[in-house]
């Protein structure tokens, strides 16, 4: 049935501290009550996309409440990224559940920060919260979007942070970003941009995982969550790994049987899901596009209206496999049939650039020469796509040809022989690196690349580790100069078939800027230093130090 729509704007919803948040209501023009969908956003609840969403849901028999977050647009209070959403969301859900037009069942929807407003509320246990549809959302806010194994994601935090500085949307189009990203000390970047961001200062002041980050993390709260989630993500999203962490968290540890029926879909998409067949400079074909709104509606129809539409009987995972550009259903993550293969780094000591002698193979190393390069923070390796957000015109996102980066002498390239047959790599990927530096601190980066027969080098996933965080995120420990340390670099996740004749490449370096801030190599307090030091880096791959990729290979 297609309902008419009644709209009520700027309805004040009281929070426990007396602050009123503004909500717009979209109600079916019929006798209620109705199951209700809540969307809480910092991006203006009166934007055209929000109005269209609210009206569409009301047409389909749902009440829809779209609310401005605290301190944003028409809502009172002071905005501070991430920190107030849990309690404010709970108070709003409790208010909705008591309204005469609500059936007592509330679902939530939205992506990115609008997904954050769902996850942070779930552990508060509103009796009305019945299901969620979070798209492209964090699981652990220290790891992403803030610090990734200790490296600060300056690209997204500066651009997105400044956009949300203040009550309304802020323009970031008139900065010289290439210059601004280089501001030292890092703490001063927001001031150099003419801004005063309280949350920026706190992010920089908390480089180590502590109670500041723990308070908003999902990862110790799964057992408090009762509502099932339909997770939506992309292989090239800022939260590609986090989407799977969230899926597994509820699927394995949710408080109720319903929560443990959570699902996930992941396509070849960046942060904006299924908006184009093309991501970066790769076109994945018409089959890569999915009607996510229809998927969401089926989820709501089942959990909020009680319609037996079979959604819970379908496999919990739907994954797009790049390389062959096909969708496949799966039942667990990582896949139960995964073969964890070690692909070792080799060279004769000259793996610098794609023209060097670095090779990659399953063969264990013998007695081999080390590879060396110089990392100068004044001339960092530039970001060439990847899992970035949220300004692709400032910092590009998605898969791009890496050859311009790989021509640098400070990028080590290890490339396999052409594959004799297709090889599927689907799952979490990591690089185990044995390396030494002469600096008090430094970074190590890794990247997985699919090299076509014509030489095109498509980036799949990458990662970074700040040396002082090599043993964990709660107790930084500076490396010992000249000593070989083991670094496990999380390259996040991928789903890709390396086709016959293609080659697998691993890149190793010490910077990926401006996706991540530059390690200044001084070992001093992060974000507060302006001195720059050059680091001389040594990568080992020998019997005693077998540096290698760990690839989740799926048997044919």
- CATH architectural label of the largest domain: Sandwich
- Continuous helix count: 12
Report the sheet with the most strands, covering strand number, pairing sense and barrel closure: 7 strands, antiparallel
Overall shape = globular
Quote the beta fraction. Answer: 25-35%
Supply Rg. Answer: 24 Å
Just give the CATH class of the largest domain.
Answer: Mainly Beta
Residue share in helix: 10-25%
CATH superfamily of the largest domain: Galactose-binding domain-like
Structural domain count? 3
Tell me about this structure.
The chain has 556 residues and is of the alpha+beta class. It folds into three domains: 1-135, Rossmann fold; 145-211, no CATH class; 339-554, Jelly Rolls, CATH 2.60.120.260. The protein has helices at 48-59, 85-97, 113-119, 142-146, 154-163, 177-180, 189-192, 198-205, 211-214, 240-253, 292-305, 403-406, and strands spanning 5-14, 20-28, 34-41, 63-68, 102-111, 129-135, 147-148, 151-152, 230-234, 263-267, 278-279, 282-283, 317-321, 326-330, 339-346, 359-361, 371-375, 412-415, 423-437, 443-451, 457-466, 485-498, 503-509, 535-540, 548-554. Strands 15, 16, 17, 19, 22, 24 and 25 form a seven-stranded antiparallel sheet that branches. The two termini are 46 Å apart. The relative contact order is 0.12. The mean pLDDT is 97.
């Amino acid at each position: 049935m297609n309902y008419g729509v009644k709209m009520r704007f700027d309805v004040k919803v009281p929070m426990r501290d007396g602050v009123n948040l503004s909500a717009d209501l979209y109600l079916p023009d019929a006798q209620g009550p109705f199951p209700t969908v809540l969307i809480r956003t910092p991006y203006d609840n009166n934007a055209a996309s929000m109005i269209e969403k609210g009206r569409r849901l009301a047409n389909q028999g749902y009440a829809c409440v779209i609310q401005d977050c605290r301190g944003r647009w028409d809502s009172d209070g002071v905005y501070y990224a991430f920190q107030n959403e849990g309690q404010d969301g709970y108070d709003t859900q409790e208010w909705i559940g008591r309204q005469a037009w609500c059936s007592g069942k509330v679902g939530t929807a939205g992506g990115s920060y609008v997904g954050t407003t769902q996850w942070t509320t779930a552990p508060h246990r509103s009796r009305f919260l019945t299901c969620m549809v979070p798209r492209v959302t964090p699981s652990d806010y220290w790891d992403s979007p803030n610090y990734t194994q200790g490296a600060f994601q300056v690209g997204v935090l500066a651009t997105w942070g400044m956009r949300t500085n203040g009550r309304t949307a802020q323009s970031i189009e008139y900065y010289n970003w290439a210059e601004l990203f280089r501001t030292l000390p890092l703490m001063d970047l927001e001031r150099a941009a003419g801004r005063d961001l309280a949350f920026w200062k706190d992010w920089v002041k908390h480089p180590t995982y502590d109670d500041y980050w723990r308070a908003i993390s999902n990862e110790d709260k799964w057992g408090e969550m009762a509502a099932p989630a339909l997770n939506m993500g992309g292989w090239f999203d800022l939260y590609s790994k986090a989407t799977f962490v969230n899926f597994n968290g509820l699927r394995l540890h949710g408080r109720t049987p319903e929560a443990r029926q959570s699902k996930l879909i992941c396509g070849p998409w960046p942060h904006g899901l299924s908006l184009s067949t093309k991501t970066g400079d790769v076109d994945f074909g018409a089959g890569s596009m999915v009607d996510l709104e229809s998927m969401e509606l089926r989820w709501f129809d089942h959990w909020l209206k009680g319609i037996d539409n079979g959604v819970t009987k379908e496999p919990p995972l739907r994954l797009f496999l790049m390389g062959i550009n096909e969708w496949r259903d799966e039942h667990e993550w990582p896949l139960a049939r995964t073969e964890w293969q070690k692909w070792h780094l080799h060279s004769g000591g000259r793996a610098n650039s794609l023209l060097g002698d670095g090779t990659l193979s399953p063969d264990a190393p013998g007695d081999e020469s080390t590879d060396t390069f110089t990392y100068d923070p004044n001339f960092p390796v530039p970001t060439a796509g990847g899992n970035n957000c949220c300004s692709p015109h400032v910092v590009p996102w998605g898969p791009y040809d890496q050859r311009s980066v790989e021509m640098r002498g400070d990028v080590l390239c290890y490339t396999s022989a052409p594959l004799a047959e297709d090889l599927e790599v689907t799952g979490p990927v990591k690089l185990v690196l044995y390396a030494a530096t002469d600096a008090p601190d430094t970074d190590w980066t890794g990247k997985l690349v699919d090299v076509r027969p014509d030489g095109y080098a498509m980036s799949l996933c990458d990662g970074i580790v700040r040396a002082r965080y090599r043993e964990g995120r709660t107790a930084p420990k500076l490396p010992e100069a000249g000593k070989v340390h083991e670094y496990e670099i999380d390259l996040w996740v991928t789903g890709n078939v390396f086709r016959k004749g293609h080659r697998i490449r691993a890149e190793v370096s010490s910077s990926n800027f401006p996706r991540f801030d530059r390690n200044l190599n001084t070992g001093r307090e992060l974000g507060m230093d302006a001195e720059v030091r050059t680091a001389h880096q040594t990568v080992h791959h020998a019997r005693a130090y077998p540096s290698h990729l760990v690839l989740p290979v799926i048997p044919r």
